[in-house]
Amino acid sequence: MKRESKWYLSTGKCIEDELFAFGMQCHHDHPSHSFILDTRDSNYKTYEVFFPAELDEIKAFEEKKLPIMPTELHDFNNSFNKNSIQELRSQIFQSQEFDQEYSHKDSHDYDWVRFTIYALLREYESGSLKEEHSEAWYMAHIWHFIDTVFNGEDEITALR
After folding, report:
1. pLDDT digits (tens, 9 = 90+) for 59-92
2. 39, 48 Cβ separation under 8 angstroms
3. Which of 40, 82, 99, 138 is an S-S bond match for 88, by CB 3.0 to 4.6 Å?
4. Which of these, 72, 68, 27, 77, lies nearest to 47 by C-alpha position?
């Protein structure tokens, strides 16, 4: 990576160089191998990759605020908080207002939530979530949810 493309903290520390050096010491796969930096990862403090003030500087850099979930969607999500699989199945298959005259533009998020919960329930019931799998399995069975969450957005395309 070219020096001018790297991110330097006010301390002079280069983030990419630190992530690379740390990743080389890891015995297992770690997000740093892909230059992914989660400031909540305690390993960065434990192994003194970054000091608390540096992590604060990273967190504050061009911070993006997450949008607030609409109350109706929040309530819909919470409608799936059930105490048994049978109750959850009943909720999944309960007819919703958005089913009557489905509009992808207006109902995508609700439909995605229901579909995702149902698909995860099927994985749970099959026992597959208790087993270790190949990355290809996770890509097909789990990451699919992330791939499709933005299908309702015109300006976002999920690629991996």
Report:
1. 999 988 888 999 999 999 999 999 999 999 999 9
2. no
3. 82
4. 27
